[in-house]
Write a structure and sequence with these properties.
This protein has eight helices and 29 strands. It has helices at 244-247, 259-268, 297-306, 320-325, 330-353, 378-392, 402-406, 429-438, and strands spanning 19-20, 23-24, 26-27, 39-40, 55-61, 65-66, 78-79, 82-83, 87-94, 99-107, 115-117, 119-123, 141-143, 151-153, 158-160, 164-168, 173-180, 190-192, 199-203, 216-218, 221-222, 224-231, 236-242, 276-282, 311-317, 357-361, 398-400, 407-408, 411-415. By secondary structure, it is an alpha+beta fold. The chain has a six-stranded antiparallel β-sheet, with no helix packed on it.
Length: 446
């Protein structure tokens, strides 16, 4: 099966090869000027894509991680050894693809006590906006778990709700309101701090209220880890595995202008790709090799990619935090370079085994960043070596050259000044739009 992209994306072509059994097929794809792409057409499909029948596909995800003390719910919603007692938590999420049958996932991955959930509703937010306290009253629907309004999520586990009827449109915001009567008897709370979306907390049970007047704002997601829709066999998901550059540091709070959001908008604008869900499984500070903010990418691959519903594609854009936190010595950088390449190969192997196509993105510049840019340029040399491997090894099924998109042509070790947030590492919304524009949509055609 060969894939192609539009003439607007034509520029650079690189043939590649991947063996599957005794058959291999070379595919050549024309892509945007800033992008070098290798496609290896194996005929494999993700676990979700092989059947023509309806199946469950995640339309939204957030990577679960342990909440740092500074990101716990504000007082009085955090108490010694208890959080969210007698608390209504209202959150909005930006979904990818549409569906009329929906279910939710709650995670207690990092809790050290059971998580009792008392009542949950979903609704459309007022004005369709992200991060608002109000909902459209006529859209409120109750959510059940094995037929009950309440459930308990065991330590380290997750729970999937019963399916419920709800007309959920593509690229829309969904409000999920959760009430916890007893709260959770621990301060080890599962959350996603880098939500770039406002959540709201209010004492008492207000799951059906049209507005949470007097609620306390917290720009984090708590407990909720996924929204799924029942979709046709043609609908499938693409996971973006990454760090803060994918999680959206530098993007607009409640603006949904991270680069995966902007990529989703491009996919939705074209009929041949409007059934592709974009799932952001990234977290600020995350690393490929070692735990940091959240478990390392190798450790979370099963949970965040292989066990996520409907995944057919994986895009890996991660590694800058590994290079930037490794010792700035020749030995330290040689080790992290070798280990990163080995980790990418492991991710590719494991995803291919599950029938998932894997794309790689080059690591973007950090010249001038106080923490990562060492005077001798050893970390920059590691970035160049890793990027050279990504571009030339043919290990990935395609390569997206984000480095070429973001770097200053006059000073290639630095970001373009126009897209730099000022820390010389993260991008502003203009830069994230450039990332989204650089991804050939043909990579996600069936």
């Amino acid at each position: 099966m060969f894939q192609s992209v539009s003439g607007k994306e034509a520029a650079m072509i690189r043939p590649g090869l991947r063996w599957v059994g005794t058959f291999a097929c070379v595919a050549m794809v024309a892509v945007a000027p800033a992008v070098v792409v290798t496609l290896h057409s194996s005929g494999t499909q993700g676990a979700a894509g092989g059947s023509p029948g309806a199946h469950w596909v995640n339309t939204w995800t957030s990577m679960p991680q342990l909440t740092e003390p500074g990101n716990l719910p504000p007082a009085p919603f955090t108490q010694p050894d208890r959080v969210l007692a007698d608390t209504t938590l209202r959150q909005t999420v930006h979904v990818s693809v549409s569906g009329r049958q929906v279910r939710l996932r709650y995670s207690n991955a990092f809790g050290t006590a059971d998580l009792p959930i008392t009542q949950v509703t979903v609704a459309l937010p007022a004005g369709g906006a992200a991060g608002v306290t109000a909902i459209q009253p006529g859209t409120v629907r109750p959510v059940t778990f094995n037929g009950s309004a309440s459930t308990v999520v065991s330590v380290g586990a997750q729970v999937v709700s019963d399916p419920f009827a709800f007309d959920l449109g593509a690229q829309t915001n969904l409000t999920v309101t959760t009430y916890l009567a007893a709260g959770q008897a621990t301060n080890n709370l599962t959350s996603h701090p880098g939500s770039r979306t406002s959540s709201w907390l209010l004492a008492g049970n207000h799951v059906g209220d049209a507005d949470l007047t007097g609620a306390t704002r917290a720009d984090h997601w708590y407990l909720l880890s996924g929204v799924e829709v029942r979709a046709s066999g043609r609908t499938a998901a693409a996971v973006m595995l990454g760090d803060s550059l994918t999680d959206g540091r530098g993007s607009t709070t409640n603006g949904n202008d991270r680069w995966p959001d902007r990529l989703l908008a491009r996919l939705q604008a074209r009929h041949s790709t409007d059934d592709v869900a974009v799932l952001n499984q990234a977290a600020g500070g995350n690393r490929v090799l070692h735990d940091g903010l959240g478990p390392n990418a190798l450790a979370r691959l099963d949970r965040d990619v292989l066990a996520t519903s409907g995944v057919r594609w994986l895009l890996v854009f991660e590694g800058v935090n590994d290079i930037g936190t490794a010792e700035a010595s020749e030995a330290g950088q040689a080790q992290v370079t070798s280990d990163l390449i080995g980790a990418y190969e492991q991710i590719i192997t494991r995803a291919h085994t599950a029938g998932i196509t894997v794309y790689g993105a080059t690591i973007t510049p950090f010249g001038g960043n106080t923490g990562y840019d060492d005077p001798a340029g050893l970390r920059e040399a590691s970035r160049q070596r890793v990027n050279q491997w990504i571009r030339t090894s043919h290990a990935f099924d395609a390569v997206i050259d984000f480095d070429k998109v973001a770097r200053d042509p006059a000073i290639p070790r630095q970001l373009l000044a126009s897209i730099d947030t000022g820390d010389h590492l993260h991008l502003n919304p203009t830069g994230y739009q450039m990332f989204a524009d650089a991804v050939p949509l043909g990579l996600f055609q069936h």
